[in-house]
Amino acid sequence: MENFPFEFGRPWWLLAAIPALWWTFAIAKRSLAGQAPGWARFALILRVFLVILLVAALADVRSSLKGEGLTVFFLLDRSASIPMEYSDNAYRWIEERAKDIDPDDRVGLIVYGRDAGIERDAAPRLRMTHIESVIDRDATNTEGALLLAQAALSSSNATGGKRVVVISDGNSNVGDEVLAARNLALSGVVVDVLPIDFSYPQEILIDSLGIPAEVHPEEPYVVSVVVHSEVATRAEVHLYENDEKVETKAVDLVKGKTRVQFPRQHTEAGRYRYEARLFELGDSPVDTLARNNVAYGFTVIRGESRVLFVGHEEEHRPLLDALASSRIAVEVVAPDNVPQDSEMYFFYDSIILANVAAYELGVDTQRLLHGVVKNLGVGLIMVGGPDSFGAGGYRGTQIEKLLPVDMEVKQRKTIPNGALVMILHTCEFQNGNMWAKRIAVRAVETLTREDYVGVLSWGGMGGDTWGVPFQQAKDKAGIANLIRKLQPADMQSFVPTMNLGFKALKNAPAVQKHMIIISDGDPIPPNKAAMQQFVDEKISVTTICIGPHGAGDTGKMKKIALDTGGRYYFVEDPEELPGIFMREALHVRRNLINEETFTPAIVIETPPIRGIADIGFPLLHGYVITSPKPTAEIALVSHEPHHDPILAHWRYGLARTAAVTADSGGRWSSDWVGWAGYEPFWAQLIRYVSKKGGDELFRVERTIEGDRGRIIVDAIDAEGSYLDNLEIGGRLLDPKMGEQEVSFQQIGPGRYETQFAARRSGSYLLSLEYKDETGTEGHHQTGINVSYSPEFRHLKSDRDKLEELAAAAQGRVLSYQDDPFDPNVPYHYQRTPLWEMILNLVVLLFFIDVFCRRVMLSLEPAKRAVAWLRLRRQPKEAESTETMTALLQRHQTVRTETTKRERPKEIPTFDPTEHAEGTPQAGPSDVAKAPPKPTPDAAPKPTSFTDRLLQAKKKAREDLDDE
Length: 963
Prior knowledge:
With 963 residues, this protein is of the alpha/beta class. 29% of the residues lie in helices and 28% in strands. The chain contains 22 helices and 42 strands. The strands form ten sheets. An eight-stranded mixed sheet has the order 17-16-18-19-33-32-31-28. Strands 23-22-21-24-25-26 form a six-stranded mixed sheet, sandwiched between helices. The model is unreliable at 905-930 and 933-939 (pLDDT under 50).
């Protein structure tokens, strides 16, 4: 059955053919009654064919044809562990081998490092000049490349033999490539390997940098640098502390590992970051790789609690003074100076974002803050103001996830809308239209679904048009697509465009109405009357001047902004545009600000306001409208009927976060500054959300071994006894802010260990939580730094690993002389489902079947036509002879019939002796009246319509036979 061209996915359905065919023959006797014999046989055969087709479709019939040709995918390792010249040589070998392959063969190429990409899909020729795929070279993931090859070989292009050739150094450090190769072999794909052999016989590198996770002030500690060398040589180690060189040591390296130690001691609390650099000494250097000659690490010296205050210092002076009076250490930074090193946040117990807009922080900083708050337990408080919460553009951001309130207003039936019109005249500076599209899309992202937005530009001969028609921002993706299609041309006058925008804004059901114009300033400006219309309708216009032709252009742009109460920006660097557009787009979000005067109402006396509620809260003159999240604790709300959150808090991850929707002592909460509860309120709130101090009973060791990180915790109580049977778990934050859960296993008395993948360079932060047998809980934080990619630890290829991979897949270990297109591989069958085609055929034949059973037709005309065609095909002489014979026969027949008709009828003679005397004799009238005798051929007269129909059918057949 190997060469049988069909197979069945559900073969048990074939048994249904037995009853189906029996039923078909059983009903054929009745359904075909009255049909001509030939026509009845045709209808029966058609019905049987239909039944067979239906059973085959139910059995999931598929065509199974042996594929032709051989498909080979080359998997080229381009990771950083392989010298580039070796990788390039392998690429040229692939090109050479793929030049003259059989017409039925196909070749494809996959390049990989940490990730993999199909450089060229399977095709008869490999036409390319260089590698185009961009991959992460800091790791080797052969498993991922094999899985991608398996998916590519599953396509319809690869139908015959299938082979994968892995070209690598064997130093895979991500995934299980042996298991992936074994799975490929089970699916009939041959996996061969071509080793890339190399080595660095005289390399030196920094193997590790050992620093205590944390120390006490004035406690001495040692920074230990372990150097690995493949050869005895002389080198020098430089140590940097917080980016300043503090010590240098020369050392004679032996083959293997050499430890270099630097004693350190500090009295001030803080985070101390160390960097060790290795330099080879001598006139004939042997070191090749520079990336593995640097290592990083850090330690934390614990001190008093510290708050990271992000905001503008002068704006929040009353709050900062109150915190100083409460002996809370505060470090104030501007929004653009927030620390970007995640290990810095070991030193902070809480973070305050005080009236800071989202665009001022940026996406990367927000992602960093989200990671350290959720996974390190650093507390967070957002303080209100015109640039905070939804009015500050935080809707849909990572910061919104942290907070106990939503920026989208849900509890109110109606909320005042904002309206924004953007006019783009950006074609006259370099890449201007590209920048216009980018900043317009960013501006739309800051709006809510209920806000209105439109984009205007001059479309050349089309005049001033709405590139994005004025509409509510419900479909932001659709609006963004329209913006990306815009091609603003050189505008001649602001008048028509601003008039279109004015009409749309005037009629918009919005409270905040704003227009943004970006231009070089040379179009004709509106007159004074037109500007007064903007003022009368309270529509502000902000102008952004970039690339002006002279002072007159800047003057026009500045005047438009001043006359309408907008802002004027002069921009030289386009990189400034996104921030400006974000800030101006947020102007329409002022509809989320409520500036009514009220006294906050207490919902529940939660810990942050415990003991303060009795004093009574002063008046507030405004706040930012938000909605509480379902599990948030709401302590204070606004006045009736809104009951919007004023103070809300909850637990998020390992941290507590809070939202104060009023400001810190400005125009909204000016009455709070002189209030007796002002200082206690803020002090209690900050202490409530702040991260708790680490457990002093933990001692932590951190090491990096290859691409694995290892952390060992020694738990010892105050009396020096080991703490056994602890349940220790934690959250790990990697350098890309990725999160993963970790758990510790006890490996000795009071000693616990965990390992994790450390395949990226950078800081790994770990927050531990433990519980003892009595239910007592605690936590501890630590971290470790991976100085460089594990790719730079591989000093030679691993041929044994490649041989293991080939053996698992029953493949070969190739050399550059072997043929990767050897056809000696298992060939696959191309299987195509046929059920859909069968059903289409059944539908077509079904109507023919119905026609055959409902319409009575005779096959005699067809027979006569066939006979006539046969006569036409015979030779001419035979045709003449047969015709003459037929005529003679017909002549004889006619003559015979004529003779019979002309023969006289017999007249009976009178025999006088035949009648006796007295016997009555029939007269002429009696003879005439005697009834005729019935003839033998006379048929009975039909009595019903059916009988008459059958009689007529019989007579017609007889007439045809006579002819």
